[in-house]
Amino acid sequence: MNNDAFLAACRDAIGDSHVLTSDADKAGYLTDQRQRYTGQATAVVKPASTEEVAQLVQLCNQFRIPIVPQGGNTGLVLGSVPDQSGQAIVLSLKRLNHIRAVDPVNHTITAEAGCILQQIQDAATTANRLFPLSLAAEGSCTIGGNLSTNAGGTAVLRYGNSRELCLGLEVVTAQGDIMHGLRGLRKDNTGYDLRDLYIGAEGTLGIITAAVLKLFPRPTVQLTALAALQSPAAALRLLTLAQERCGATLTGFELMSDLCLQLVGKHFPQLPFPFAQRHPHYVLLELSDSEPAPHASALLEALMSEALEQDICQDAVLASSGTQSRALWQLRESISSAQAKEGKNIKHDISLPISRIAEFIADTDALLQQHFPACRNVTFGHLGDGNLHYNVSPPEGVDAERFIGQQAAINLLVHDNVNRMNGSISAEHGLGALKREEILRYKSPVEIALMKTIKQALDPLNLMNPGKVI
User: Fold this and answer.
1) pTM of the predicted structure, to 2 decimals
2) d(C-alpha 212, C-alpha 182), whole Å
3) What is the Cα–Cα distance from 118 to 128, expressed in whole angstroms?
4) In this structure, is residue 74 part of a structural domain?
5) Phi, psi of 159 (to 5 degrees)
6) Which of 181, 298, 337, 445 has the least C-beta neighbours within 10 A?
């Protein structure tokens, strides 16, 4: 058995035009989103149905070909690209892009794995419902990838991660069988939760091909405010106050350092800075409510007035229209793009107990300045659920490549401090290949052994996204 026979069988299964073997055709599937790594693959295969996925997995079992499942390829930890051996295939799920059903009464939507996140949001809107998962990459990431990495986003505070938004899965197992689990049930107490094994597994246990997802009533009003603060500690005080005063209407709570908005202003000058003077930190918060608009407006105005009176924040801007609200959110959503335009940087996707975030930022900022003087901390993230994007950029005028050469030392310093405060080195991006070895330093031997046992039981041939996670 050889690659020629394998590729011929793949063409018989899904059609010649959907088996890509030329370097030009494969190129767009082999490089990671940050353009820092390019792998190699025997082929890129593009099935159009769950049954075709199952056929391809069966062929890979027969020929012992590793499989790298891929959705939108927007990940940041090298989880959706192959290694450089050239032995694997990339199995793109982009052609599995149909909304199979919308059930407004059950508040569910059934979507195939290759559906773009925004496509699902729009289908929910058409049914007068809300699908609340929201990410900067929502115009290009796929729901299969979101589930495989247990993606978070800006509304986790109220609605939870992808895991909390999923009720059922259809999965092609590592042997090429189909697990039919598309049940839109809130209660199903019939043994092990197989669904949860595949969510967050990054394609290492099987391939998610479709999902039943939760929908919610559409809020009648969404209100946004941007608060200026002296410190992350003040941001935590504002979070506590907002939760006490606003309860479940608090949907988003995003922390941004001033450097974040300086970079946005530098690279996107068309986005106006909303304050007369600069402040060390900012919080973007959003309320959404099913009550008439005056109810949420009164809540937000009372909250910000109290925060100003208590000297929690120094200034605040309340959006008075949808246009102004979108402009404030655009500041937040442009941070990653501004960083990319500024040059290479070292990213950390971490989570911490919310109560320790201010301590972590102060301690780790000081440690980095001690060991890597003048480095720039681009700190932002989802403060309401404890997830920080704690990124480190080179000092101004320092060669980026030379600075990136210190990545291992910087990662060690940051991640050791995360671990000391009972945090996680990956909050919502996953482990992929990038953090596969590093996680061994922080997970207990018992946890690692259990993960290996599950992997061996479900994928004994180690064909499903090998070299990722574990």
Assistant:
1) 0.93
2) 6
3) 15
4) yes
5) -110, -15
6) 445
Q: Residue 40 is part of a domain; what is its CATH number?
A: 3.30.43.10
User: Does residue 457 sit within a domain?
Assistant: no
In terms of Cβ atoms closer than 10 Å to its own Cβ (0-12, 13-18, 19+), residue 200 is: buried
User: What are the beta bridge partners of residue 67?
Assistant: 89, 464
Backbone dihedral angles phi then psi of residue 469, each to the nearest 5 degrees = 70, -55
Q: Are residues 108 and 14 in the same domain?
A: no
Q: Do 331 and 371 sit in the same domain of this protein?
A: no
Residue 214: left (phi > 0), alpha (psi -120 to 50), or beta?
beta
User: Number of H helices and number of E strands within the chain?
Assistant: 16, 18
Q: How many CA atoms lie within 13 A of 186 on its CB side?
A: 5
Please check whether residue 468 is in contact with residue 436, taking contact to mean a CB–CB distance below 8 angstroms.
yes
What's the pLDDT at 289? 86
Residue in this structure with the two tokens 């049954």, named with its chain if needed: 51
Expressed as residue numbers, the domain containing 360 is 343-429
315/394 same-domain check: no
Query: What pLDDT score was predicted for residue 295?
Result: 86
**The CATH number of the domain where 297 resides is what?**
3.30.70.2190
Q: pLDDT tens digits, residue range 92-151?
A: 999 999 999 999 999 999 999 999 999 999 999 999 999 999 988 899 999 999 999 999
Tell me: do 88 and 106 sit in the same domain. no
Query: What does the alpha-carbon distance between residue 214 and residue 400 come to, in Å, rounded to a whole number?
Result: 43
- Which structure tokens are listed for 167? 């009720």
Residues 225 and 306 in one domain: yes
Give domain status of residue 449, yes or no: no
Mean pLDDT of 411-418: 98
Provide mean pLDDT across the span 360-375. 97
Q: Which among 421, 456, 419, 450 has a CA at the least distance from the CA of 435?
A: 419
